[in-house]
Every structure is written in C-alpha cells, then in structure tokens.
Amino acid sequence: MLAFRLNLAESTVPSFLEMPNKHTCLFSLVVLCLGSVRCEELYVQQGKPAKLPCDGAVEWEYNSMLIIREDSRTGNALKGPAPMKDRVKMKGNGLEISGLVTADAGTYTCKSRKADTIKHQLYVISVSSSPASPLLQGTQAELRCQVSGRSKVNPSWLRPNGTRVKTSEAGSSTLQSVDVADGGKWACQLTPESKIDLPITVLGLSSTPALTARPGEPAVLRCELSQSWLVGSLGLQEGGWERLSPNPARLLSLEKRADGQLFWNSTGARGSGLKFSQEKLDGNLSVTLKKVTVQQSGKYQCFLKFKDRGNVAAQVSLEVKGQSDETNHGGGTIGDQPNSKGVYLGLSLWVWLAIGLGCLVLIVLIIITVLLSQRNKRMKRRARKLRSMRQPLTARDYCRCSRSTVGRPNGRRRGDAPSEKGCQR
After folding, report:
1. Which spans in 324-406 are helix H?
2. Cα distances (Å, whole numbers) of residue 382 to 1, 118, 370, 386, 389
3. 253 three-class SS
4. Cα–Cα distance between 29 and 24 in angstroms, integer?
C-alpha cells in the first residue's frame, strides 16, 4: 500500500489556497487515493470516558470541526469550536474524552507528526431497563440498547448465563415475566469484541408450592425473600401472610419500623396457632402452623406490596390428611377424627371439659389446704396462751410471832419496845 505523506509549512498554506479549483480537486483526489488513511470503530458506553489512540497527534477534528491542535511555534494547545472541547485532553498518544454523551458520536480525525491520518468512528451506547432496576418478580420489563451514530450493526441481548434472547432491530428485548433467576449481569453485544454490561437486580419470593401434613403436626409455610436489603428503598406499603381459600383471611402482617427493619406485627396473632420469629427479619418470612387440622387445608400466600411498583407473592398449597399423632400429657393418643364436630383451637370439646374439671378440683384442694392451715394456727395460739397463765395456790403458810404477855394486859410494859423473837411456822 502506497503511503503519501504531505508536510505543509505555514508559508505554503496561502499558495495552496490560491490554487485554481481544478488543481484543488486533483490534489484532493491524489491525497484520497494515495494517502495513508486508517479508520477504526469504537463502541463506548454513555457516561464513560473514551480514548482515541493516535501516536504523535498534533490536531484532532470532529466531523471536520476543529477540536484541539498543537501550536507549532509555542507548543500550546489551541481549542476549536467543537462541542466537546472542554472535556478533551490531547496527549502524545491520543485523545481522551470524558463523560460521553450521545451527541459525541461521530467521526474523529487525527493528524499526527508522521503525516498519517487516522479516523475513528465513535458510537455511544446507552443501555437501560424499563422500569429501572431493581425489578419485581413476575412483572414485565424491557431492556434497551441504543446506538448513537450511523452504525450498521444489530445489537443483541445476552443473559447472565450467556444465552442470547430475541432482540429487535432497535436493540430492545422484552421480558414478559421477570424471575429471580434473571438477576445478574446482562450484556448488549454489538460485535464479537464489543459488549456493554447492564446489571439487573430482581426482588422476589421463593416458597414450597405444595405441602402435606397430618392432623396435629406442625406445618412450616416457607417464604424466603431475595435481596431483602432492597425492601426499604422500594417503598414497602404492606406485606405478610394470608389464606386465599377456603375462607380468605389475613393471618399475619409485616411491620416496617423507623430504621427500615422488618418485624412481624404480633397484634392479633396471639392464640391463632401461628409460630413466627420475634426478631428482625433478614429475608426469611416463613411461619409455622403449630397443630394443623383438616379444616386448615387450602392455599396460603406470602406477599409484599410496593408503592408505584406492584407486588410480589408466593403461594403454598397445604393438604392435611391422615390420622392424628397428637399425644396428651398422660402419654395416651388423642384420636381426633378429621370431620369431628366441636373442635376449638385444635382440641375437642371433651378435652376442654376434662381440663375444666381438673382446674375445679385443684381450686377445691387449695381452699381445703388454706382452711386447715388456719385451724392449726388457731390451735397453736390457744395452747401457748394456756401455758403462759399462772396456776392458783392451794396451800398457804402464815407467819406466827411469839410475843411476851408479862406486864400489861397487852403484854407490853410502858417504855418497853416491842420485841420479836421471830416468827415460827
């Protein structure tokens, strides 16, 4: 291949401009035919930087519009009127454009010191999903891959596992029902070497579709939430467990607190036969029916509703069949029949009567014990009182005094003091 190098000094430019038209056309034809012109295609994602290689570049043009050039006398960079002039940096080995926009698509021409002209065809690619990620399980979504510029390639979408999906000529692909397995890194492929990635996150619920249990046994209604950290950012309105059939009813509700954490709202759930976690929920929304009965057979649903986004749900079909294996406290078997009447909270009427009678007997025993205790206390107090009383004296000894009767009749002489020899008993 012939290479035609043209070095024009600044003094020769005016003579070039003064050439007649036919000479100008002939000169241009020679340049196009003999000149060394290389063209490369680049596919860059919108918002990312683009690097256009060109060794020894001195001037760059965008669609024949000056972007930047190097002054041959001072060596300073002089910028032209191109729209991306404030976002470019010219280096010795190429041009760097930051923050690509769709209007940056076009032809870039590099003039180097080696007199080679290199052209780059830049295509700006924008990839997106509608609605934007994260997506909800079961909803419809559209993937878009738009190419800015006159590209002749037809984009195609690849799943995270590498399989190709049906893509229109405009670069769009529709997912009729998004599944949790669709989460991952999708890719818009333009050429075998050029792919633009689009991360997709899917919020969904997984459960066990069918469940079988025997009467009196616990039944676990499983429900697990993928990407639970996204719940707060999507604007959760309500969620929980409900029975769809028969007799539709709400079983348990979710509570979103001020810090964005999820808890079960236990209000109204006491005594309902449900067992659930009292701690913070980290994606496991499973609950347990403690002692199921045949009447509890039916369809149950775990659901989440989001503002302006839709809802996600997972259903569980519960079938209760067989004989009861429930045992009483004495070790005997409670033979609950599947279709028995008078069942309340999983126990038959005669069981409740036995419980009531046992409670009555217990109350009577407590009363008798209290009365006997009070009687014993009274008897002890009476015995202590009797022991503390003094016994009456039955024999009394009196003191008899021996006095002299000599003298006066009363036995005392005048002036004599009475004398007592003592008392004799």
Report:
1. 349-388
2. 136, 124, 19, 6, 11
3. strand
4. 9
pLDDT in tens, 250-286: 999 988 888 878 889 888 676 678 899 888 888 899 9
Closest CA to 92 of 59, 49, 44: 59
Q: Number of C-alpha atoms within 13 angstroms, CB side, residue 257? A: 9
DSSP letters spanning 358-374: HHHHHHHHHHHHHHHHH
Per-residue DSSP letter, 84 = T
Q: CA angle at residue 274 from 270 to 275, to 5 degrees?
A: 100
**Quick check: 317 and 211 in contact, CB under 8 A?**
yes
Cis amide bond preceding 409, omega within 30? no
End-to-end Cα, the chain, rounded Å: 169
The whole-angstrom separation of Cα 6 and Cα 143 is 48
Residues whose CB falls within 8 Å of the CB of residue 285, separated by 6 or more in sequence, listed in order: 205, 223, 224, 225, 239, 241, 254, 302
Tokens representing 190? Answer: 């333009």
Residue 325's pLDDT is what? 52
Relative to beta strand 310-320, strand 210-213 is: parallel
DSSP codes of every residue in 317-329? EEEE-S----B-T
Task: Tell me the pLDDT tens digit for each residue of 352-381.
Answer: 889 999 999 999 999 999 999 988 988 888
What length is written for the chain? 425
* R_g of the chain computed on alpha carbons: 52
d(Cα 123, Cα 106) in Å, to the nearest integer?
A: 7
Q: Locate 203 and state its tokens.
A: 């919020």
- The overall pTM is greater than 0.70: no
* Dist. CA 308–CA 306, nearest whole Å: 6
Which element (helix H / strand E) includes 40?
strand 37-45
User: Residue 106's closest CA among 170, 42, 169?
Assistant: 42
Q: How many CA atoms lie within 13 A of 261 on its CB side?
A: 8
Closest CA to 189 of 153, 141, 161: 153
Q: Report the distance separating Cα 50 and Cα 40, nearest Å.
A: 13
CB 274 within 8 A of CB 344: no
